[in-house]
Write a structure and sequence with these properties.
Elements: H1 24-42, H2 49-56, H3 60-66, H4 70-85, H5 91-94, H6 98-106, H7 110-113, H8 116-128, H9 133-141, H10 144-161, H11 169-180, H12 185-189, H13 197-214
Helix pairs in contact: 1-2, 2-3, 4-9, 6-10, 10-11, 11-13
């Protein structure tokens, strides 16, 4: 493959003529999938822009046209991971009781099982925060705040409907996110520790029940 055979794998069914060019979103996903593949094979130390470009079947020039640097690449991966981990409610789901809405919004999903790279990114942030505080701020802004903001929207909706009476929905959303999601400390300290998905689900159920009781809302 030449340096600029940047019809980028194309992921399209082979056909006669020139391959279909990828849309910006398709190219972005191709690169982020390549990042995951390189990390799975080589760890964070081997996850270079060059390796990701090769995995994606494109030149480094094309990769840098999409992401300015490695920090931007990690930031984009974090944003995509969080968007997949948080279920966005449709109008029909928004009509459900608060407990059901929060379960749909926050319940552990398949994205929760794929945490090795997100935790490696978190370690990178911690290690480089003193030299690259801008990177740390940007990546964190794409992570947990997105979940907290989505929860706060539902708590505001609960207040409007009389399902709850919460003085500070942003603070309550942050509290619920911390209660219902596992602490990253264990995995940061011991990357080889196996993930106990049943324990993650049990913590979520318990944390949500405690929170709902605390705000005086129906559990289910």
């Amino acid at each position: 493959m030449s340096a600029d055979s940047d019809q980028d794998h194309d992921a399209a069914t082979p056909r006669r003529g020139r391959p279909r060019a990828l849309t910006p979103d398709e190219r972005r996903d191709l690169i982020l999938d390549a990042l995951q593949a390189v990390f799975d094979r080589s760890g964070m130390a081997g996850t270079t822009m060059s390796a990701v470009a090769t995995e994606a079947g494109m030149s480094k020039r094309t990769l840098y046209a999409v992401f300015d640097d490695r920090a931007a690449l990690l930031e984009a991966f974090t944003e995509r991971h969080m968007s997949r981990a948080v279920h966005r409610l449709d109008p029909e789901e928004q009509a459900l009781p608060l407990a059901s809405r929060l379960r749909l919004l926050m319940a552990p999903s398949e994205a929760t099982r794929a945490l090795n790279l997100p935790f490696a990114i978190l370690r990178t942030i911690i290690a480089e925060a003193s030299e690259r505080p801008d990177m740390a701020r940007r990546i964190f802004a794409r992570g947990m705040p997105a979940l907290r903001a989505a929860v706060a929207v539902e708590l505001d909706r609960a207040n409007a409907r009389g399902e709850a009476h919460i003085e500070d929905t942003e603070a309550a959303a942050a509290l619920l996110a911390d209660m219902a999601r596992p602490s990253p400390l264990d995995r940061l300290v011991d990357p080889a520790k196996p993930m106990d998905f049943e324990a993650i689900e049990a913590r979520f159920d318990f944390g949500l029940r405690v929170f709902l009781r605390g705000i005086g809302a129906a559990e289910d």
